[in-house]
Amino acid sequence: MNISIVTVGKLKEKYLKQGIDEYVKRLSAYAKIEVIEVADEKAPEELSEMEMIQVKQKEGERILAKVAQDTYVIALAINGKLRSSEELADSLDKLATYGKSKIAFIIGGSLGLSEEVLSRANEHLSFSRMTFPHQLMRLILVEQIYRAFRINRGEPYHK
């Protein structure tokens, strides 16, 4: 399975990089995983509704440029479907069973994802109704993907 995590912005926090690198290393035994960063759109703190839409559209174009046509896309969205770790594991297992070997998880920038990205997604996934920093979501996501593979293999880790 080839898994991409397409995300907006450059990760600066060393502690998050270290955590992500650790899980990417662990995941290499199960799948090919790649974290793809696209540039965030520079914008002032105060934006009108129209300016927010334009920022998300520009970031969305960059995201979609990194996603191949034959890729199954899972967009992280606060209003997406809530799943347990076991349900995520089952979903990934079913995708592999039915020949979906390319999966992209999409993490938007601080304003979220554009309508174009949400429309392209095959599903919307929420980790919580709470808002998390998008940089932290990378670590949470990669850990949950690792957990899913461990669950599917019946290996100890998940408790």
UniProtKB/TrEMBL annotation:
It holds the Pfam family SPOUT_MTase. It comes from the Bacteria. PANTHER family: METHYLTRANSFERASE, RIBOSOMAL RNA LARGE SUBUNIT METHYLTRANSFERASE H. The keyword S-adenosyl-L-methionine applies. It is found in: Cytoplasm. One of its GO terms (molecular function) is rRNA (pseudouridine-N3-)-methyltransferase activity. Specifically methylates the pseudouridine at position 1915 (m3Psi1915) in 23S rRNA. It is an enzyme of class 2 (transferase). S-adenosyl-L-methionine binds at residues 76, 108, 127-132. GO terms for cellular component: cytoplasm. This is Ribosomal RNA large subunit methyltransferase H. It catalyses: pseudouridine(1915) in 23S rRNA + S-adenosyl-L-methionine = N(3)-methylpseudouridine(1915) in 23S rRNA + S-adenosyl-L-homocysteine + H(+). Its EC number is 2.1.1.177. Homodimer. Belongs to the RNA methyltransferase RlmH family. Keywords: Cytoplasm, Methyltransferase, rRNA processing, S-adenosyl-L-methionine, Transferase.
